[in-house]
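Notebook, student rotation project (T.W.).
Task set for the rotation: take a protein with a known small-molecule partner, predict the structure of the complex, and write up what can be learned from the model alone. Partner molecule chosen: zinc ion. Sequence and SMILES entered below by T.W., checked by me.
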Amino acid sequence: MKVRTEMNLVKLVERFRGEDACRAYLEELRWPGEAGVECPRCGGNTISRIRERNQFDCDSCRYQFSVTAGTIFHDTHLSLWKWFAAVYLIVESKKGISAKQMERTLGTTYRTAWHLNHRIRAALKEVDAQLLKGIVEADETFVGGKAEDMGRGYRGNKTVVVGAFQRDGAIRLQVVRGRDRETLQGFIRENVAGGVEAIYTDEWEAYKGIADSDTKHETVNHSEKEYVRGDVHTNSMENVWSLLKRSIIGSYHQVSAKHLDAYLDELEFRFNNRENPYMFRDAMLKLLLAETLPYAKLTAEPAS
Ligand SMILES: [Zn+2]
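Predicted structure of the complex:
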């Protein structure tokens, strides 16, 4: 389906090329109600503007604050416009954008681009995600390392990623420590509603026993070259793996296991908003509401 998004590069530049426009937009997103600007300290709505300093002054408690106070955008030397552009680049590019590419496109240092990338990713992470329903495909794959074609049993230095896909709905992806029954079924129980109609997997034995009285479990036997049997297949999950691997090869070159989970969150956000025309706005909203993440918490080792 072709979705007409409300944002494109030209609109982004026309609308936000300037700090005042960015601030006005954040103000709308942060205080959307009739009451308007609200004091973060006392909740008061009688506010005076101090235009020359881009600040608000609360008439009740005299607290002075800006639209970015207490948000990810505060205490950053980067212009709001560059934050906006970075969010746009991340959410609108199907395969994501590497820190190297971000550095070139925004004209920042590599360290800044890397930092931006990671902070935005962390903010896009789904919290309290809804459980998947209906018909759900589940599958796992190996990411990273070399030796692509060593067969299913070979792990080497690869990382295991497990995923679940609600047909015509959302995906959930996660790095896991192995592909044993406890791990894979644990992931399914955490992400899939009890009593869904069906779970489709391949024949891998760790999935055996996931069915119960109101959920059927159907498998296709990939080792016997059976990929589709009627409605039963894991092709949607396979498509996600191929997107993931093309992204990693194409724009990331390599993602260390440490950062893979954050990258999966980013991919999840893009994928789950693939039909949302307001993806940019919703991403900005998530950034506004996100907890601020200190640089030290990310890592001292810049990687892709
Ligand atoms: Zn106040």
